[in-house]
C-alpha cells in the first residue's frame, strides 16, 4: 500500500500567493487562530529561524514553558506576543523556511503575521503612538515647518526631551530618532518636477529615471537622495521627480492598516504609471519602498494592470546601475579609492532577489574591498524606537555592530539609511555611517 510522505522543500523557487485581504475569512478570528496554531506548530518543530528576529524565540519560549510543551499548550492571547515582534522583513520566507509554497504545507509566516496585524488593527487594538509613527507624511510635513523643525530637533537632542517622548509617546529615551529638515528634497529639487528628457535605453532600462523620494529621503536624509541624483546624472541618466507623491504605504502595512495602504496605492500608482508611460523608469533609495511597489502592492492587487506596470519599471538604485554597466553605460571613471568598505545588506533589498548589486557596483572602484553583512539590523522603521522593543532591536543589531567593529573599515553603512543609523547607534558612532550611494559619489569625486 502506497503511503504519502511529506518532503522537505527549498528544492524549488518560492512562490508567493496573492494576499486575499478583502475576503471575510481573512478577518475571522477563529479562522486566524486555527492557521496561527497550524503554522506555529510547524515552526516549533523546525526552529531554523530562531536567529532571525524576536518572533521566533518568543514563540519557542511560549511553547517550552507551556504545560504540554506543545503549541496546544499556548494560550491564544499569547499569540499576539509573537505577532507584535514580526516586522515583515521576509527573511524567514526567503532564506530559511523549507516549507514555503510550492511545498504542500504552504507556509508564509510574514503574510500570516500581516493578516494577524490586520485583524488586530480592525479590532481597534492599536496604540496612538503607532498610528502617529506610521503617519510619516503628516509627521514629516509638520516637523519640516521651520519653527516646529527647530523645536522637534531640540527635543530629540535633549535628555529631558527624550524622557518626555518616552513618557508621552512610548518612544524609548535611548533610541536614535532621526532629525527632520525644513529644506526637504522636494523643495530643493522642485525644478526637476515635470522636466522632459531623453534617455539612452540599455537592456530593460530606458536611461532616464523618476526618483520616488520617499518620506525618509524627503524629510530626514535628503542628502542621500541628492547623492543619488549626482551619481545617476554623472552617468548620463536624467532624473526627474514625480509631480506629487505620498508615503508608499509600508509603515501602514506593518501596522495592519490595509485600507490606508490602498489609499496610498490609489494616490501613487496613477502618477507613477503616467511617468512609466512617458518612458521614465522609477528608482527609490529606501529598499522598503521599492519592495512595496515590487512585491506587496502587486500581491494585494494582482488584477490591477497599473500596479503590475509600475512593478515592472521600478528598480533598486544599484540594480539599475549594474543593468546599465552590463551594457557599457555606467561611468567608471572613479577619482578616489574607498579602501575597506563594510555594509549591511538590508532585508528588504535582499528579498527583492536582485543579487549583490551594491557590492558589484562598489567593487568597480579601484583599490576598494567590500564586505557584506547579510544579517538583519533589527531597526524596521519604527520597531527600534518603541519603548517595549528597543532592547530587542539592540540585541538583534549587536552581531552586525560587532562585525563592523571587528573589521575596523574605512567606511560602514547600509543600503537602508535607517538601518545604517541604527548600526552606528549601536557602535556609539551616531552620524558616522555612510550610505553606499554617498560612497559612490565620493569615489566619483563629485
UniProtKB/TrEMBL annotation:
Domain of life: Bacteria
InterPro entries reported in the protein's UniProt record: Cys_rich_dom
SUPFAM superfamilies: 4Fe-4S ferredoxins
Keywords of the record: 4Fe-4S, Iron, Iron-sulfur, Metal-binding, Repeat
Name the UniProt record assigns to this protein: Cysteine-rich domain-containing protein
Source organism of the structure: Thiocapsa marina 5811
One function term, GO molecular function aspect: metal ion binding
Cysteine-rich domain span: 209-294
Amino acid at each position: 500500500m502506497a503511503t504519502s510522505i511529506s518532503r522537505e522543500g527549498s528544492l524549488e523557487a518560492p512562490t508567493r500567493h496573492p494576499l486575499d485581504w478583502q475576503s471575510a475569512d481573512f478577518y475571522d478570528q477563529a479562522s486566524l487562530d486555527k492557521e496561527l496554531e497550524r503554522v506555529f506548530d510547524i515552526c516549533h518543530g523546525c526552529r531554523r529561524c530562531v536567529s532571525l528576529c524576536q518572533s521566533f524565540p518568543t514563540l519557542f519560549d511560549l511553547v517550552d514553558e507551556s504545560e504540554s510543551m506543545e503549541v496546544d499548550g499556548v494560550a491564544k492571547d499569547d499569540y499576539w506576543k509573537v505577532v507584535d515582534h514580526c516586522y515583515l522583513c521576509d527573511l524567514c520566507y526567503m532564506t530559511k523556511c523549507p516549507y514555503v509554497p510550492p511545498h504542500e504545507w504552504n507556509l508564509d509566516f510574514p503574510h500570516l503575521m500581516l493578516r494577524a496585524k490586520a485583524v488586530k488593527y480592525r479590532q481597534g487594538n492599536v496604540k496612538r503612538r503607532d498610528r502617529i509613527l506610521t503617519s510619516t507624511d503628516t509627521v514629516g510635513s509638520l516637523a519640516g515647518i521651520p519653527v516646529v523643525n527647530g523645536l522637534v530637533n531640540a527635543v530629540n537632542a535633549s535628555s529631558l526631551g527624550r524622557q518626555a517622548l518616552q513618557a508621552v509617546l512610548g518612544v524609548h529615551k535611548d533610541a536614535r530618532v532621526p532629525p527632520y529638515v525644513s529644506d526637504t528634497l522636494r523643495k530643493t529639487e522642485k525644478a526637476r518636477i515635470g522636466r522632459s528628457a531623453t534617455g539612452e535605453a540599455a537592456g530593460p532600462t530606458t536611461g532616464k529615471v523618476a526618483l520616488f523620494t520617499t518620506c525618509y529621503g524627503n524629510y530626514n536624509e535628503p542628502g542621500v537622495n541628492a547623492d543619488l541624483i549626482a551619481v545617476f546624472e554623472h552617468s548620463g541618466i536624467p532624473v526627474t521627480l514625480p509631480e506629487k507623491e505620498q508615503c508608499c504605504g509600508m509603515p501602514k502595512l506593518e501596522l495592519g492598516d490595509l485600507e490606508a495602504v490602498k489609499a496610498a496605492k490609489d494616490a501613487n500608482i496613477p502618477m507613477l504609471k503616467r511617468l512609466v508611460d512617458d518612458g521614465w523608469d522609477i528608482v527609490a533609495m529606501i529598499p522598503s519602498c521599492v519592495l512595496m511597489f515590487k512585491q506587496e502592492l502587486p500581491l494585494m492587487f494582482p488584477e490591477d494592470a497599473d500596479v503590475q506596470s509600475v512593478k515592472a519599471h521600478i528598480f533598486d538604485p544599484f540594480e539599475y546601475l549594474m543593468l546599465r554597466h552590463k551594457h557599457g553605460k555606467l561611468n567608471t571613471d572613479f577619482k578616489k579609492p574607498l579602501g575597506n568598505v563594510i555594509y549591511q545588506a538590508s532585508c528588504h533589498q535582499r528579498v527583492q532577489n536582485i543579487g549583490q548589486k551594491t557590492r558589484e557596483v562598489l567593487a568597480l572602484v579601484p583599490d576598494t574591498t567590500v564586505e557584506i553583512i547579510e544579517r538583519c539590523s533589527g531597526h524596521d522603521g519604527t520597531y527600534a524606537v518603541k519603548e517595549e522593543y528597543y532592547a530587542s532591536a539592540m540585541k538583534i543589531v549587536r552581531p552586525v555592530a560587532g562585525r563592523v567593529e571587528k573589521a575596523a573599515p574605512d567606511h560602514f553603512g547600509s543600503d537602508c539609511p535607517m538601518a545604517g543609523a541604527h548600526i552606528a547607534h549601536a557602535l556609539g558612532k551616531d552620524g558616522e555611517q555612510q550610505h553606499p550611494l554617498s560612497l559612490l559619489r565620493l569615489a566619483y569625486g563629485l
